[in-house]
Amino acid sequence: MGNAQQQTTDEALRARIDPERVPAHVAIIMDGNGRWAKRHGEMRVVGHTNGVRSVRETLVGATEIGVKYLTLYAFSTENWNRPRAEVDALMDLLVNTLMSELDSLHENGVRLNAIGDLESLPGSCRATLAEAIRQTAHNDRITLTLALSYSARWELVNMVKRIATDVRDGRVDVEAIDDALVSANLTTAGMPDPELLIRTSGEQRISNFLLWQIAYAELWFSPVLWPDFRREHLYQAVLDYQGRERRFGLTSEQVGPA
Ligand code: IPE
Ligand code: IPE
Ligand code: MG
Predict the structure, then answer these.
(1) Which of 184, 154, 194, 172 is nearest to 25 (CA)?
(2) Which residues surround ligand 3, an ion (CB under 5 A)?
(3) pLDDT at 206
(4) 128 partner at 20 to 30 Å CA-CA among 6, 7, 69, 251?
(5) What class does CATH assign to 22-150+193-228?
(6) Which of 30, 31, 36, 73 gets mutated to test ligand 2 (max ligand atoms within 8 A of its CB)?
(7) What ranges do the domains of the chain cover?
(8) pLDDT at 257
């Protein structure tokens, strides 16, 4: 598709989105970089490099329709077990991308955030990340959260440790432990739960991402490999989301139009 034609497609899709019912928080499991590279006869890392454009497109697209939180699964706890060269390449890509994109993030009102075991990242990553977070801290158009060295079980174990410590030290009463307290002790404290979770590459699993937070998220699976993911796919996902009835355990009559 040519550029102008693509723009027409994007705009046509965007026009169909109800601005009143855009999900406040969209989370994405960006998957399929390796397979994309293989299909193009390239090394896996080339797939990751090409995934950066998809991140940019998704971020711009999400901002345009008024999504307030975009959370991207960029590197899982389990991903540390990949071949050393691939892990190193991913860390380098993270640093280089943050450095090259920082100005544009800032100009577009993006507040950068990161969740996960950030201590386990190489020093250069931690430093670049901390600086980018600091520089964009006062932006408020959209919060871009990168999940890095993240896994939901890691997060849940930490939450239990924190609450248990507070109980032990007398700061929290056992009876006071509720949904809100659990949420407040997760890495996503202060953010609304994602209403929409997207996974690319055809896999239909969660792979240890935001287990608590997606309790009632709408799931959208796409066969598109992450490096091919564009604004139009995000818009398709949002349109599909808007066509669904979210019942939260109630009957259709209860949640339907009065
Ligand atoms: C997603 O693409 C990126 C990361 C997990 C870091 P993959 O690298 O998992 O790509 P596939 O699943 O092997 O195709
Ligand atoms: C999930 O993708 C993690 C990220 C997208 C960062 P994986 O490719 O690691 O997941 P599995 O191994 O297919 O479940
Ligand atoms: Mg994968």
Answers:
(1) 194
(2) 31
(3) 98
(4) 69
(5) alpha beta
(6) 31
(7) 22-150+193-228
(8) 80
